[in-house]
Amino acid sequence: MKYDFLLKQFSETEINNTNIAIAGSDKDIDWKELKNNAEQLKTVFDKISIPQGHPIIIYGHKEVLFPISILTCIHAGITYIPIDKVYPIDRIKNIIEKTGSQIIINCSDDETINTEFAIVINKKLEVLTLSTPDYKGKTYAIKNDILQYIMFTSGSTGEPKGVQIAYSSITAFVKWAIKKFGVTSEDVILNQALFTFDLSMWDLLNTLAHGATLVLTSSELIKHQEAFIERIIHYKCTLWTSTPSFVYLFFRNSTFNSNHLTSLKAFYLMGEELPAGTCKFLKSKFENIKIINAYGPTETTIITTLVEIDDAILNTYSSLPIGYAMPESELMIDKTNPDDNEGELLIAGDHVSVGYFKNEELNKQKFFTHNTKRGFRSGDIVYVEDGMFFYKGRNDDQIKMHGFRIELDEISNVLCKNELIIDAVTIPLKRNNEVKKIISFVIVKITINPEQLIEQLFFSLSTSLPNYMIPGDIVIVKEFPYNASHKIDKAKLASDYIFSQTS
Q1: Where does residue 363 rank: exposed (0-12), middle (13-18), buried (19+ CB within 10 A)?
Q2: CATH no. for 1-182
């Protein structure tokens, strides 16, 4: 059995329908149960009459109901917003207030969030009506399409920004996946990315489109490497998808090799730059393993380019390519100087987002129309060699750490909300072009106990930002250094910090 995204229906329903469809943190369900649960939830949607374009919140972590809810929203044409329960409550409330969502599917046992909504669908698929929903001004339509999901990522203004993805963008990705990715119904896909991170949609959409098995792993289980590896062995996972830095966590694990993980046949790595050293390590530990490097901003629906990193590529290039563009996607390089070989990557096609949620100013800066197709200015600097695209860096202060997009200015803006802070700047510390640590520097208004202030700042950050955005250190300085261009000299801040830690 599998799900046909073009026809919006389950197909081949009598084939392999007792195979595990989803192994969650709470239970496993087969394909027949997946179909029945999705149809039951669709009936609930029909019963409460959700207006088209009104976003509902899917809240939880790695429960089976979370991907069921995503599938049912796609099946029913309902707009959804994924929110993981690891997010701080202030950030969650910010998203609820910004979108006006009146409905939550609570996949978890945590009921404290329910009071923020008029209608609650609990994990038993029961409907709890807490108040009369108000949908006025809270529906967001797209002409000739369906707004399928809004995924909130880090924003430079101090507020998360919502990336809006249409149903047509999902089908564009699925068409490519069916033809190119080599996934089959026999595959068991290992998922560890949060459903608030679009890498997770690679796992889910490929599972559904091919009739494969999806193995969800909780953040708590990932903390214990042996238990995580045992889960891979138990379910005989064949495809590993993650960021390169997640793979790096297992470099010193003696069981992370083909002798123990005999079922693994491919690593699909995405979300951040892939170091050659990571590939060489994997090839030394896993015989005949395929390593696929993929690239794509959230604004272009999961990934846009793809390439298998074979020995020929690994031995030819010092920096690894991000690959070739998906079909029907046009990639262009905006060069500052026509004689340059590099510039900002522009991406156009049906897979491009319809824009940021309620952010017209930023939409004008980042989105455009090219040959009637939606276009996006990625902010990524790339060049082409031997017909392949290579990533070189960013043209702004956005970074990626462990695969998560982080706007450094968002961290600084949250710090500046403290009345004792005059100004703040946040920088990344890198090793081999990979972000290893985030450091924030602050200037204070008055003399105060530094330990007490820093503790206070860390607390305020933890209530506003996800864990992955909390800096590794906060440093109080009297003033910021400036370069000849009268800009804050971030390189000097970094070097001074490194010197202070080693002296």
Answers
A1: middle
A2: 3.40.50.12780
Quick one: how far is CA 327 from the chain centroid? 22
Write out the DSSP string of 300-357: GSS-SEEEE--HHHHHH-SS-EEEEEPTT-EEEEE-SSTT-SEEEEEEESTTS-SEET
CA atoms within 13 A on the CB side of 344: 12
Identify the three-state secondary structure at position 8: coil
**Residue position matching structure tokens 């996972």:** 237
Q: Cα dist. 394→166, 198, 397, 399 in Å? A: 26, 20, 7, 8
The one-letter code for the residue type at 237 is C
319 Cβ neighbours under 8 A, 6+ residues apart: 276, 390, 391, 392
Mean pLDDT by 10 residues, the chain (503 residues): 97 96 97 98 96 97 98 98 92 94 97 96 96 96 95 73 97 95 96 93 98 96 94 98 87 94 96 86 93 96 96 91 94 86 94 96 95 94 94 78 81 85 86 84 84 89 88 90 69 86 74
Q: What is the pTM of this model?
A: 0.84
The residue behind tokens 């530094």 is: 450
Please give the helix or strand (H or E) that residue 11 lies within, else none: strand 9-11
Torsion sign (Cα): 230, 234, 236, 241: negative
Cα separation, 45 vs 218, whole angstroms: 28
- Closest by alpha carbon to 295, among 173, 406, 390, 180? 390
Between CA 284 and CA 294 the distance in angstroms is 21
Residue corresponding to tokens 């902010």: 379
Identify any residues that bridge with 435 across adjacent strands, giving them in sequence order.
430
Q: What is the 3-state secondary structure (H, E, C) of 118-184?
A: CEEECCCCCEEECCCCCCCCCCCCECCECEEEEEEECCCCCCCEEEEEEHHHHHHHHHHHHHHCCCC
Tokens of 169: 């963008």
Secondary structure of 383-451 in HEC code, one letter for each residue: EEECCEEEEEEECCCEEEECCEEEEHHHHHHHHCCCCCEEEEEEEEEEECCEEEEEEEEEEECCCCCHH
Domain positions in the chain? 1-182, 400-502
* CATH superfamily of the domain spanning 400-502: ANL, C-terminal domain (3.30.300.30)
- Residues across the chain: 503
Cα–Cα distance for residue pair 405/469, rounded to 1 Å: 9
Whole-angstrom CA distances from 349 to 300, 352, 369 are: 8, 6, 9
Q: What tokens were used for 32? A: 């027949």
**Dist. CA 414–CA 474, nearest whole Å:** 13
Closest to 305 (Cα-Cα) out of 252, 378, 236 = 378
